[in-house]
From TrEMBL:
<protein>
    <submittedName>
        <fullName>DUF664 domain-containing protein</fullName>
    </submittedName>
</protein>
<dbReference type="Pfam" id="PF04978">
    <property type="entry name" value="MST"/>
</dbReference>
<dbReference type="InterPro" id="IPR007061">
    <property type="entry name" value="MST-like"/>
</dbReference>
<dbReference type="InterPro" id="IPR034660">
    <property type="entry name" value="DinB/YfiT-like"/>
</dbReference>
C-alpha cells in the first residue's frame, strides 16, 4: 500500500501542474509509459518498486510542481490560466491547486480505510 500511495501522486502532480498549467514536457518514469497498453501501470508496477525510489520520484514531482506553481502565481496570481487544456478545458491555478488537495485527501482516505480494515480502529 505504501508504494501505491507514493506512486500515484507522483504521476498526478506533473500532468496537473507541469504539463497542463505550464505546457512543459512530462517527466520520467511517466513520460515513456504506454498508457493504452497498461492503463494501470502505476498500480501494477508500484509493488515491485523500491520504496526509496518511489519517495525520490514523489519528491521530484512535488519540487517541480511547486516551482511551476510559484512561477505561475508570480506571473498572474491564482487566476493564471493553464497553457493547455485537460478534458477540453483550461483551468486556473486555483482550480489546479484545489484539485491537488483533493487528490491527496482521497489517497489519505484510502490509506485510512486500509488501516481500519487491518486494526479495526476508527478515527474521530
Amino acid at each position: 500500500m505504501r508504494q501505491l500511495v507514493l506512486n500515484e501522486p507522483s504521476r498526478t502532480e506533473p500532468p496537473a501542474v507541469r504539463e497542463v498549467l505550464c505546457a512543459e514536457d512530462g517527466i520520467e518514469p511517466w513520460e515513456s509509459v504506454d498508457w493504452e497498453a497498461s492503463p494501470d501501470w502505476e498500480f501494477d508496477t508500484a509493488i515491485h518498486d523500491d520504496p526509496a525510489d518511489l519517495v525520490e520520484n514523489w519528491q521530484t514531482s512535488v519540487s517541480l510542481a511547486r516551482g511551476n506553481a510559484e512561477r505561475a502565481y508570480t506571473e498572474g496570481g491564482l487566476d493564471t490560466r493553464s497553457k493547455t487544456t485537460r478534458h477540453g478545458e483550461t483551468h486556473n491555478l486555483r482550480w489546479i491547486l484545489t484539485h491537488m488537495i483533493e487528490e491527496y485527501a482521497r489517497h489519505n482516505g484510502h490509506v485510512d480505510l486500509s488501516r481500519e480494515s487491518i486494526d479495526g480502529l476508527t478515527g474521530e
